[in-house]
Design brief:
Layout (H helix, E strand, L loop, with lengths): L2 H25 L10 H13 L4 H8 L3 H13 L3 E4 L11 E4 L1 H21 L5 H20 L10
Helix pairs in contact: 3-4
Pfam families: HTH_27 (PF13463)
Protein name: MarR family transcriptional regulator
InterPro entries: HTH_MarR-typ (IPR000835), MarR/SlyA-like (IPR039422), WH-like_DNA-bd_sf (IPR036388), WH_DNA-bd_sf (IPR036390)
């Protein structure tokens, strides 16, 4: 694999993520964010995707300091959107995991529907074959990351 092509692919991926986030944020009904900030939504979405996680792992995945995660978690706990779970490892509070509550899952589901509607509208002119290729490529990349141990799935606890 040519390093130049890989570099271009990674930079394009970063650009698509950044541009996509910006476009979706602008088109999103801001009333959906009445209950949570965008950062809190990202934390909820991370929990939905990864399952119960430690605050330290959430900070690592979201590339923020643990104090930022603590502040977000406090707000989400007070809103009933997340809850503490005891880790099976031991009862030490530092090993407790955070999980999303049914109320949090409902909120994420509503927001996911709104985001998908925006993406569907934006990408409606892309041929099915290209979407299939996109799925194949990202499936391969994800499987490779997991196989190489670069996924944080294993450091969840």
């Amino acid at each position: 694999m040519a390093k130049k092509n890989l570099y271009q692919a990674v930079k394009l991926f970063e650009d698509v993520l950044l541009t996509g986030s910006e476009v979706i944020s602008k088109k999103m009904d801001q009333n959906l964010f009445d209950h949570v900030s965008k950062q809190q939504f990202e934390l909820l979405n991370t929990l939905k995707l990864k399952g119960p996680s430690s605050p330290g792992n959430l900070a690592l995945v979201q590339c923020v300091h643990k104090s930022a995660i603590s502040n977000r978690l406090k707000k989400l706990l007070n809103k009933g959107l997340v809850q503490w779970e005891n880790s099976e490892a031991n009862d030490d509070k530092r090993s407790k995991l955070v999980s999303i509550t049914p109320q949090g899952e409902k909120l994420i589901s509503e927001m996911d529907k709104a985001i998908f509607a925006i993406i569907e509208d934006i990408l409606s002119n892309i041929e099915d074959e290209k979407i299939d290729t996109f799925i194949d490529i990202f499936t391969t990349v994800k499987e490779t990351l997991i196989a190489k141990g670069d996924s944080t799935d294993e450091t969840n606890h």
